[in-house]
Design a protein that fits this description.
alpha/beta, Rossmann fold, Arc Repressor Mutant, subunit A, binds calcium ion
Length: 228
């Protein structure tokens, strides 16, 4: 499950340099040349992290960050602002805008990747490769394995991502819209009942070990993964 990194940068050379490094680190780069095209990308599918140039032709990165923070769907998107300015006041303004981190050009690709990794770990553990275990059910992202004791459970790729997301938020009621955003990365073009279809398949897949009981349907709310 590769994290999707949206790179919003109007300078082709810098955009390409970042994209190459992002891809090399195992993430999926998505490119936008200005704020308008970035908005279209975000509407189509939520990225896991945004690298955002401060000076864009149509809207400043700070302004775009403020707008993203004002909407429920994009409020929690991790954002790293990239800028050529180094003044302290600008740095503060960057944080005031709601960006999570800040880098001054020119930066080394290595440092950029370190910040990307740190921010993804903090904000999107579902994109991390660490195994999760709840109530005897264990999910290993790097090997795509789900086990219960000695038993290996067979899950389709969507059910695997869905389970990973549910296990990331145990004991929380997750709405169908939230699950679509987190698992499908898009709640604009997929119907909410798609979630129900995959929850049903996931429960079937977990039945052999009895772990389907951990997925609770919350009437009028969505679904909750019980802590054990
Ligand atoms: Ca620029």
């Amino acid at each position: 499950m590769n994290a999707k990194v949206l790179i919003i940068e109007d300078e082709p050379a810098i955009r390409e340099l970042i994209a190459v490094n992002i891809r090399h680190a195992g993430y999926t780069p998505i490119l936008a040349v200005d704020a308008a095209s970035a908005r279209r990308q975000i509407d189509a599918a939520l990225p896991d992290l945004i690298l955002l140039d401060w000076m864009l032709p149509d809207q400043s990165g700070v302004e775009l960050t403020r707008r993203l923070r004002a909407e429920a769907r994009t409020r929690d998107l991790p954002i790293i602002l990239l800028t050529a300015r180094a003044e302290e006041s600008d740095k503060l303004q960057g944080f005031d805008s709601g960006a999570d981190d800040y880098m001054t050009k020119p930066f080394s690709p290595r440092e950029l990747l370190a910040r990307v990794r740190a921010l993804l770990r903090r904000s999107a553990p579902e994109a991390s490769q660490d195994p999760v275990e709840i109530g005897g059910l264990r999910l290993e992202p790097d090997t795509f394995r789900v086990t219960a004791g000695e038993q290996t459970l067979k899950l389709g790729p969507t059910e695997f991502r869905l389970l990973h997301y549910l296990m990331r938020y145990p004991d929380r009621v997750l709405s169908r819209g939230k699950l679509l955003d987190g698992v499908w990365g898009d709640h604009v073009f997929i119907e909410e009942r798609t979630v129900d279809v995959h929850i049903r398949r996931l429960r079937l897949a977990l039945q052999p070990s009895g772990h389907e009981r951990l997925i609770e349907t919350v009437r009028g709310g969505g679904y909750r993964f019980l802590p054990a």
